[in-house]
Amino acid sequence: MDEPFGPEYVRPAQPDCSRCGCCTAALCEKGRNSILRCNGHVGDEFRDTVIGCPCSAETTKHTAAWRTAQVRVTRMARELPVVPEAEALLRTLAKGAAEDTDGVFPQLKLRGLAQLVHGLPGITSLGHTYLAAKDDVRAAVAVLVVDVDKKARTARVEVAAWRPDKPVTVLLDQIVTDSGLDVDSLPGRWLEAEANCHADHADKLVLTGFRNSAPLPQGWMPTSGGDVE
After folding, report:
1. Strands of 66-202, DSSP E
2. How confident is the model over 106-159, as pLDDT tens digits?
3. What pTM did the predictor assign?
């Protein structure tokens, strides 16, 4: 029988990703679940080719980069906001195009909150997230870790004050870093986190500041925080 793994053996080509024209399917799967995105998992010779891959971009919902950006911008809005002039411009941009009379647009662009659209300043989706984080009520809530996916580095959690029967997905590394808890101890554990429980969709619900919670009273059961659809 011939030995296929000799000096002339060539590894079969991996299937291309069906959603982009720059990566293999395996690379995009890895990139979607990594804050390094696709370009963080290739050598220098391929980095320029895949650096703009939409499958792992922070502008593509449910990627690791997107989840990280939601948390980053929410924390920025609450803990280290932009100067008042920049926020005023951002709010004006949310209503339509505007002129940058105070010269603060570069601050917004640097933070991913605004961009040039046909040569004019425009707000980005992260800019809308920033404004929502500034305006929404955020409060400490009880969170139940339903399960974790170590491969995808995500966890499903139920938020007692939002929709306790509808788990939402968060980054596993965010919980571990915030709480200091071991991954294997998370499933079935109650935690506390900051959340905007008036969000009308799971994509707009942003959890920050996970921490170990005090023991819940015996027999305590969460109740829904409202008829959010």
Report:
1. 114-117, 120-123, 139-149, 154-159, 168-171, 190-195
2. 999 999 999 998 888 999 999 999 999 999 999 999 999 999 999 999 999 999
3. 0.85
| Sequence-separated (6 or more) residues with CB below 8 Å from residue 208 | 71, 74, 75, 78, 138, 178, 193, 194, 195
Sheet strands (E) in the chain: 114-117, 120-123, 139-149, 154-159, 168-171, 190-195, 208-212
What is the total residue count of the chain? 229
What is the DSSP code (8-state) at residue 93?
H
Report the C-alpha gap between 51 and 39 in whole angstroms.
5
The DSSP code for 129 is H
DSSP state of 191: E
User: Which three-class secondary structure state does DSSP give residue 135?
Assistant: helix
Characterize the bridge pairing of strands 114-117 and 139-149.
unpaired
